[in-house]
């Protein structure tokens, strides 16, 4: 869907992006991750042709991106942009018409989305009279109203309570199921785990990680196992820091430390009954912190 090659952007003496390559396949939710100031918003703004790159190329559906492609993209910026004095209905119709929909299409789609998100009764309210979360729902509709092929969402859950965040999460998944490609930039790693098929991480203007969630997790195996033993036949070494979770049942974590899982398992079998032997998989949050810290030290 989107191919980015060798993108560089410098603001004065400040690097924002250095030689960034990115490949976003069709129909996925793609997580764009990175700490504050990494360069994510700059990248998103370049894709949206709000600012220009110094060098590099962007291809959308195989063709060099052009101003006409803006209609294929829906962009929810981190700083929301609604007109405070306008009413919800007028605002959404305005955005829909701006994206090229006929008056009739605009009416139909705005009605459909207001009902879908259960906010039909807000039609005549002014934006300034809405709460942050309510305005956020209106902005979400404004972003998807023209059924873009590529949806770019910058922190789409900020301002939402858990119920509304869940509603928006489901809408994002629904859009993906209907073929929309989604780029999701967020600091909420639990949303990344739930929604994203692939992720790329940017740190200090450079891409430092790229792959499916499964690939990324597989490359960060901490080689730690969670273990439960019962019916002990030996005294557990103090270094294991085992806790008795139930009478006669002990839990602890053990690192492979160069052994194979089978070797570790054999050692455990000599200590008692092995009731649990599970490899610990890191969360995206742990991977994020580890990656950022280790690339900052390089
Ligand atoms: N218009 C600008 N003028 C000067 N420097 C800028 C400008 N826009 C961004 N930068 C700088 O470029 C770098 C990348 O910023 P960017 O906003 O892309 O980061 P980000 O990853 O989106 O961060 P956050 O997660 O905090 O939103 C930062 O050092 C920032 O200060």
UniProtKB/TrEMBL annotation:
Tell me which InterPro entries the record gives.
AAA+_ATPase, ABC_transporter-like_ATP-bd, ABC_transporter-like_CS, ABC_transporter_ATP-binding, DrrA1/2-like_C, P-loop_NTPase
SMART domains for the chain: AAA (SM00382)
**UniProt keywords, alphabetically:** ATP-binding, Nodulation, Nucleotide-binding, Transport
Record domain ABC transporter: where: 2-229
A Pfam family this protein belongs to?
DrrA1-3_C
Query: What residue ranges carry the coiled-coil annotation?
Result: none
Q: List GO molecular-function terms, semicolon-separated.
A: ATP binding
Q: Which family does it belong to?
A: Belongs to the ABC transporter superfamily.
User: Under what name is this protein listed?
Assistant: ABC transporter ATP-binding protein
Organism annotation: Algoriphagus namhaensis
């Amino acid at each position: 869907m989107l191919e980015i090659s060798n993108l560089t952007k410098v603001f004065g003496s400040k690097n924002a992006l250095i030689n960034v390559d990115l490949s976003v396949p069709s129909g996925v939710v793609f997580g764009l991750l990175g700490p504050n100031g990494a360069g994510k918003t700059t990248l998103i703004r370049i894709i949206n042709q709000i600012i220009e790159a110094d060098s590099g190329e962007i291809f959308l559906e195989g063709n060099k991106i052009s101003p006409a492609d803006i209609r294929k993209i829906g962009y929810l910026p981190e700083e929301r942009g609604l007109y405070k004095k306008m009413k919800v209905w007028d605002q959404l119709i305005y955005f829909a018409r701006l994206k090229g929909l006929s008056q009739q299409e605009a009416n139909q789609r705005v009605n459909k989305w207001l009902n879908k998100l259960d906010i039909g009764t807000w039609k005549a309210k002014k934006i300034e009279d809405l709460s942050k979360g309510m305005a956020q729902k209106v902005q979400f509709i404004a972003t998807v109203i023209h059924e873009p092929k590529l949806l770019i969402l910058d922190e789409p859950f900020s301002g939402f309570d858990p119920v509304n965040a869940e509603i928006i999460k489901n809408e994002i998944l629904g859009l993906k199921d209907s073929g929309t490609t989604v780029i999701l930039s967020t600091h909420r790693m639990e949303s990344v785990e739930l929604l994203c098929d692939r992720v790329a991480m940017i740190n200090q203007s450079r891409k430092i990680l790229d792959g499916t969630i499964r690939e990324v997790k597989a490359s960060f195996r901490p080689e730690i196992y969670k273990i439960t033993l019962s019916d002990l036949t030996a005294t557990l070494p103090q270094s294991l820091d085992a806790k008795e979770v139930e009478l006669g049942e002990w839990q602890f974590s053990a690192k492979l430390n160069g052994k194979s899982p089978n070797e570790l398992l054999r050692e455990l079998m000599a200590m008692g009954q092995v009731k649990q032997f599970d490899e610990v998989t890191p969360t995206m949050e742990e991977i994020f912190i580890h990656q950022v810290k280790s690339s900052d030290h390089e």
